Amino acid sequence: DVKPPAQRATSPKPRRPAEPSEPAKTSPSIEIQKKAQILIQRRELRAAEIMLTQYLAANPADGDVHFMAGFLHVQQNRKAMAISHFQKAAIAAADPQIRQMAEQYLKKLR
User: Fold this and answer.
1) Are 4 and 37 a contacting pair, CB within 8 Å?
2) Which residues are CB-neighbours of 48 under 8 A, at least 6 positions away?
């Protein structure tokens, strides 16, 4: 009668406490989009417009923010301005979903 050797109980090694990680850095584009979205939801449309206009003056190729500006102008019933921003978003937005949504808005507005 052969018995397997007794296994000794082993406890897992104590884990080192996790070091606090730096908060993930968010791009200025995403920050502006978030802030604009909050302002639009609060119906603070003029404040959102000023912020987006200032950002786009310094970052004219940011298609994602152009989409947000287009959305703002839809809320303000400024069709021509909305179309202009959606056209730029449809070409330059980094996010393919935003490009697609810009195309959908353009179809509705034309």
Assistant:
1) no
2) 35, 36, 39, 40, 72
Closest CA to 63 of 22, 23, 32: 32
Length of the chain: 110
Is the Cα dihedral 8, 11, 12, 13 positive or negative? negative
Q: State the Cα–Cα distance between residues 106 and 85, nearest whole angstrom.
A: 10
- Return the closest-CA partner of residue 56 out of 42, 67, 47, 44: 67
- Categorise residue 77: left if φ over 0, alpha if ψ from -120 to 50, beta otherwise: left
pLDDT in tens, 33-86: 999 999 999 999 999 999 999 999 999 999 999 999 999 999 999 999 999 999
Phi and psi based region of residue 25 (left: phi greater than 0; alpha: psi -120 to 50; beta: remaining): beta
